[in-house]
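Structure first, sequence second, as always.
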């Protein structure tokens, strides 16, 4: 959608991982060419995984999403077909326009999908959080807690040992314990006695 795309289909030569014998294969590659020492350049692309012939004939992939934010603090994108918003947070941010989230912590990836009164969420810290900086290590990935501030008051629909909630000033502080780069998935629902439907926003 934005950027200088290069595409190549060519024979590639490499060495076998076990005996170093020469192997060959034909591979397709695509890359974005930024030029030498780019300054404040941007790019945007979508990867469409295994579309059906009908999808290829009827859907324009670059029109299936909206970019809500794209800067050094966060990349936030809304996927239209699945009604899902994805947040890739680089630096801690406060969101002024978001109807669900008020504050999001740095180095966090979130996916959310809303219905009238429920919020399906996935929270992940992609950092394995390992002290030892080596090619291989036996050191386990350390858990790290992420605190997410949600507008209004929410509760878990079912118990999750990785998630705790607390309430402050009509907001919900969502504490999620992340480890191993594995997403923590759970569902929240609005506390109806204290607030109204998301659809009334």
């Amino acid at each position: 959608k934005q950027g200088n795309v290069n595409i190549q289909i060519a024979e590639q030569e490499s060495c076998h991982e076990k005996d170093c014998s020469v192997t060959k294969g034909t591979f397709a590659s695509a890359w974005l060419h930024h030029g030498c020492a780019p300054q404040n350049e941007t790019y945007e692309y979508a990867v469409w995984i295994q579309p059906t012939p009908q999808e290829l004939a009827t859907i324009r992939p670059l029109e299936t999403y909206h970019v809500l934010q794209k800067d050094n603090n966060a990349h936030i994108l809304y996927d239209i077909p699945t009604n899902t918003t994805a947040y890739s947070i680089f630096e801690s941010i406060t969101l002024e326009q978001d109807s669900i989230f008020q504050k999001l912590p740095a180095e966090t990836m979130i996916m959310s999908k809303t219905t009238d009164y429920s919020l399906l969420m996935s929270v992940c810290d992609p950092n394995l959080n390992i002290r030892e900086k080596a090619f291989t290590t036996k050191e386990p990935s350390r858990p790290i807690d992420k605190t997410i501030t949600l507008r209004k008051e929410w509760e878990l629909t079912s118990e999750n040992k990785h998630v705790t909630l607390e309430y402050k000033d009509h907001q919900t502080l969502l504490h999620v314990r992340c480890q191993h780069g594995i997403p923590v998935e759970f569902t929240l629902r609005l506390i109806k006695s204290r607030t109204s439907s998301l659809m009334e926003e």
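Margin note: The first strand starts at residue 5 and ends at 15.
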